[in-house]
Amino acid sequence: MTRTSRRTVLAATAAAGLAVAAGAPAHAAAGGRTPSKELFGTLADGTKVYRWTLANGGTRLKVLSYGGIVQSLETPDRHGRTANVSLGFGGLPDYVAKSPYFGGLIGRYGNRIAEGRFTLDGVTHRLPVNDGPNSLHGGDRGFDKRVWDIEPFTGRGEVGLALTRTSPDGEAGYPGALAVRVVYTLTARGEWRIDYTATTDRATVLNLTSHTYFNLAGEGSGSVDGHLLELAASRYTPVGATLIPTGELAKVARTPFDFRRARAIGEAVRTPHEQIGHGQGVDHNFVLDKGITSRPEYALTVADPGSGRVMKMYTTEPGMQVYTGNFLDGTLTGTSGRVYRQGDAFCLESQHFPDSPNQPSFPSTVLRPGDTYRSTTVHAFSSR
Ligand code: BGC
What spans are recorded as compositionally biased (Polar residues) (predicted)? Predict the structure, then answer.
């Protein structure tokens, strides 16, 4: 695909029409229906973008072939009423022109790499700088702006999509041809699981994540200040003015970053602290007490007292970026036609720590030929 300029999207058809049978096996499991797809829009170079719909156990997920974007995620409240709990847009042009990574599949490197530069095996690699002096979320055209191949599947009470793409050697400055496979699964228990795997033909660095903006009261319903966050992290990585970690693993005790007991997000972001100033709220990587694990283990619970919706997250990753929607500034109009303002959502990005390629004391993000990158994160939805 040729490079798509921000202003040259020709046309996009939103939701309406063109439902296409997915061709998946007919034995959809109990509760899960065979995934279906419809045309969502067309990129400037003529590439068609599809929207896939998955449903299981009361949860419904809509995913775009552009960027692996979660365009909608519906879950039931305590009365069984569903709402879309993820911020997004109704049509493709907004995703191409102005999305702050809404729902995006992030690669090659989630979060920041200082000054868009790292050295691996004695060779210095330069990356596109797209966030002040730093490279953020894979540079100006990361995985969230690439078109993915998608195959649906059903079975064992689950429905899902396998997204695949080979990122060529040198793409966005990163070494190695990287074969990536990301599987989104909806289980009968109301879980959305993401399994990431990747292999490379040259040593490289890698940190994949998902950038869904959540509002458990429903996107466009206002602030998430009243949501309660409980996070199993005794330490976090403080940052400098451009949000690059200082290298310290600081204790959360007696700081606004202490979520070891459930606390309202709005209270934390209004507690004076130098670090809150740097991020204009919480925009920090937390060091999960469980560390790196081979199976997804408990990381956090977030609850909306109004709707009763609860989301728990489990991950194999050692870190979690908590971002409280600080840079939403009232200039974007979302899926249901409401304007998004600061603090109208939060992101919870399972990850290795930011800037790890330049921070030898952090867990390594290097992937070498012959090894397989594996990462799993589970979002478990319920209500109370
Ligand atoms: C970062 C924020 C950034 C946002 C992009 C988050 O992962 O931590 O600083 O603004 O992504 O919208």
Answer: 373-384
Domain containing 314 — which CATH number?
2.70.98.10
Catalytic residue status for 284 = no
Cα angle vertex 304, ends 378, 293, to 5°? 25
In this structure, the residue with its CA closest to atom 5 of ligand 1 is 100
pLDDT recorded at residue 156: 86
pLDDT at 16 over 70: no
Centroid of ligand 1 to alpha carbon of 153 (angstroms): 32
Q: Compare 21 and 30 and report the one with higher pLDDT.
A: 30
Cβ of 242 below 6 Å from ligand 1: no
219 is catalytic: no
Interatomic CA distance for residues 224 and 267, integer angstroms: 11
Out of 219, 284, 349, 379, the active site residue is 349
User: What tens digit of pLDDT does each residue of 264-277 get?
Assistant: 999 999 999 999 99
For 179-236, how does the pLDDT look when each residue is reduced to its tens digit (9 = 90+)? 999 999 999 898 999 999 999 999 999 999 999 999 999 999 999 999 999 999 999 9
Is the CB of 321 inside a 6 Å radius of any atom of ligand 1?
yes
Please tell me the distance between residue 210's alpha carbon and the centre of ligand 1 in angstroms: 12
d(CA 151, CA 164): 8
Structural domain harbouring 135: 3-383
How many domains does the chain divide into? 1
User: Ligand 1 centre from 78 Cα, in Å?
Assistant: 31
Ligand 1 pocket check for 213: Cβ under 6 Å: no
